[in-house]
Backbone:
């Protein structure tokens, strides 16, 4: 005997139609596993004529939100429309009236999640968002349930497929950023306006969600230090290879001696680290817990069906608990915001620098002296000559605070012989 | 306001004391996340004087099972004693009286799980076993909850740390099985009687549990085809490298055109496959679902605290739902057994063969002719000479049924020029 569960959907784009497809195709499986029969009653869209999938029954489509929010039989609202507004208003309405919510909306959760979680806690409704981070990888459920016995130390994630595709292609083919971006756009792996991905906004939204689970505090995405990949040059990738590193856009949340740290930036990681071989549009997350040690999760971070997999799993997880009191592990237990993340100044890292200087005798000595004054010691250094009269100096430092590095970079810039500092990239040693 | 939850434990060895430690150290965390205060009331041991950890309070230890099973306040029984008996009787008693159970006992679940799951379903008690497979990796929860929207196609697992340590060391150092096993025993990575690990029993127990979740049917471990690593020679590993492969003990459950397949055996996998770089005592699982695509989970598959992490997470997951009806996703939904797995004969694979023959002209021709008669075509072949008059022929076939391969091997053995067939190892292409 299956119970009947009625849901309403907001949006019917790529992901939305994937969700509908999964719900229609797998009735038998869901009846077996969750003893539930799911009826999609209405799908809110802006313009029904723009829903191209022929198999979407036209009678489901509506442009009137009341058909969802005023229908007392609808118990779960699935939001796959994206954008902060009007999605937020809709979800607030749903939660306040006790309807459960499943959403894939990372931008909304990262920027205005507070209000949604408060509303959910107040009405006792569930607010699930597995699909908002790393697509089909069940990372949210792992952090909330499977690893709940751990104090989580850190997460290091490759959580934006577009930038990982671009960096992977740059690494494999030695090509430059602009060229690979244009190709990614042509292939549909990057948007025509790629800002959201390339400049790290998308990764920062996801990291805000992840780091709130790592730190057990709320975090506003504005608190996250963010650097995109547009400044990574083909030369940097070539030098990284030479030094035994790979450059990835990493989203990092970690507890350090100097406090909590959350940032998205291009990062040099050892070429033999498991994250270094995560290529193309794949996502991966390395999670460190005090009891469990290092765990890695790897899979498709986007795409119609992987994302739909996460959304429908959320629906079924809510379905089997729909007559139970709210599940504390799945609800937001923290109402405080992280007061302050560790000031970037105090963050300790090794750094890679690429500097153009005049090709004069004594230049290396000046640079070494200047770094030494700031207590920065050099791990590796290569000097090459590209053009007459100009030398390129590439170096990796030993661990140093960002503050000291900044001062040293300012001093380096003042040197008469310095023409440009082309790149400053962090080197990550994963707490080793 | 935390609720109080009273638990009883069976066993206080390495894992048991890790569980106690985690429960004692993390009261505050659990109060915050699950609003629960956990009291361990009694720990059943055979001999209290043999519990060496000084921080285990002596008054918890008891040799009388009634102190646990007759205590109506004990709601969860945690079994970490291992072995089939008397663990099974204890857990049956617990489940029949409605106490929830958390167990790490793969041998018990794989051999007599039916009775336990039936008892749990009857009384409505929870039976959680995250720690029984792959230690700290939350794979059971992922399969039961996070991927519930998928029809699962397959799982490929490196789920026995001891054999993976041995094969990794053989691969890295070119040494033989016996030598590396002795070293692993000296280091404590292998038992003094290594049968359970080396011959694949441990992996088969875990695979029985995993494959029941992949196939949605019960499976008895006896149905699983099992080959250990004792027959893998240093030469096989060297040839595998030469051909671009790595040898791993893989536990495999998959749906094929010819039915369901479940087996544990040494397997050649492409050296650039993510599973190939899982070394030492680490575990990894590649899961393929129809919606989610390929997912990989990687982490510590054994050890005190990773295993305790899984057990305590199970406890907390039960704790937050203790006043709710049984969670259908976490209970055993299947009562039928897999009637029949695909007969190994019909399984299609590529194979690696290493053959010692007389070094005579025409030998290669004979072998080629004989394989051709069975419709087996050769993908790669190397012939080398080790001793005067003897040649070693190593080859990898194109895909062929095990039945045909067996016939061909029987014919090969009959050839006058064949001295020995030293190795037959399956080559896995992961459904490509």
Residues:
């Amino acid at each position: 005997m299956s119970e009947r569960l009625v849901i309403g959907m907001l949006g019917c784009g790529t992901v939305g139609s994937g969700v509908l497809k999964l719900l229609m195709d797998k009735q038998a499986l869901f009846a077996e596993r969750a003893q539930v029969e799911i009826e999609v009653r209405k799908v809110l869209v802006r313009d029904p004529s723009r829903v191209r999938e022929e198999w979407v029954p036209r009678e489901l489509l509506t442009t009137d939100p009341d058909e969802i929010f005023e229908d007392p039989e609808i118990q779960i609202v699935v939001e796959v429309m994206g954008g902060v507004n009007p999605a937020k208003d809709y979800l607030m309405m749903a939660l306040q009236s006790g309807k459960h919510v499943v959403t894939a909306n990372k931008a909304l959760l990262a920027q205005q999640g507070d209000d949604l979680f408060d509303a959910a806690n107040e009405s006792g409704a569930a607010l699930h968002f597995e699909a908002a981070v790393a697509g089909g990888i069940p990372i949210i459920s792992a952090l909330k349930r499977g690893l709940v016995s751990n104090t989580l130390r850190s997460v290091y994630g490759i959580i934006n497929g577009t930038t990982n595709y671009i960096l992977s292609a740059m690494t494999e083919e030695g090509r430059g950023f602009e060229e690979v971006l244009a190709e990614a756009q042509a292939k549909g792996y990057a948007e025509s306006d790629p800002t959201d991905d390339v400049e790290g906004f998308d990764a920062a939204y996801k990291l805000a969600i992840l780091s709130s689970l790592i730190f057990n505090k709320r975090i506003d995405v504005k608190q996250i230090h963010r650097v995109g990949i547009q400044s990574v040059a083909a030369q940097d990738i070539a030098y990284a290879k030479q030094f035994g590193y790979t450059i990835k856009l990493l989203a990092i949340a970690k507890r350090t001696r100097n406090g909590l740290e959350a940032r998205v930036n291009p990062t040099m990681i050892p070429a033999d680290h498991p994250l270094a071989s995560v290529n193309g549009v794949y996502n991966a997350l390395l999670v460190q817990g005090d009891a469990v040690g290092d765990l890695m999760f790897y899979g498709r971070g986007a795409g119609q069906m992987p994302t739909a997999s996460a959304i429908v799993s959320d629906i079924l997880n809510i379905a089997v608990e729909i007559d139970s009191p709210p599940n504390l592990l799945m609800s937001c237990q923290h109402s405080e915001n992280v007061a302050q993340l560790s000031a970037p100044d105090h963050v300790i890292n090794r750094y890679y620098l690429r500097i153009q200087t005049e090709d004069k005798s004594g230049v290396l000595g000046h640079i070494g002296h200047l770094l030494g004054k700031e207590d920065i010691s050099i791990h590796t250094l290569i000097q090459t000559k590209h053009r007459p009269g100009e030398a390129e100096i590439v170096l990796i430092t030993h661990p140093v605070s960002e503050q000291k590095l900044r001062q040293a970079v300012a001093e380096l810039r003042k040197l008469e012989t310095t023409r440009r500092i082309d790149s400053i990239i962090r080197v990550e040693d994963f707490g080793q």
